[in-house]
Amino acid sequence: MKPICRELQERLASEGAQALRVDAAAQRHLEECTECFQVLEGLARLDEALSAMPALDASERVVNELLARVEAEAARPAGEPPGSAPRRWPGSRKRFAGCRWRSGRR
Description:
By secondary structure, the protein is mostly helical. It folds into two domains: 3-52, no CATH class; 60-96, no CATH class. It has five helices and no strands. The protein has helices spanning 3-15, 24-32, 34-52, 60-75, 92-96. Helix 1 (3-15) runs parallel beside helix 3 (34-52). It is flat, with a radius of gyration of 18 Å. The model is unreliable at 86-96 (pLDDT under 50).
């Protein structure tokens, strides 16, 4: 994968397509690169599907379990196997306390 493709796809995944609307070089690349354009289309379909789903309130237990997994994953050094002793991610519970979680399950 070309470095520009990797950079563009990382920006699409982290910032969304709207971040690239003002970037003329990114727009040109999307017009020329089929692979990056397909990534953009896939993310647009995913965003549309997620937007169509109803927002559900998760139980406090589910939110706490999810946050614990996020904290453990974020604290694990690269290359360290899963299941090793997690370190804390400061402020994550407070940061996500008011979030409404979406779920594909009914």
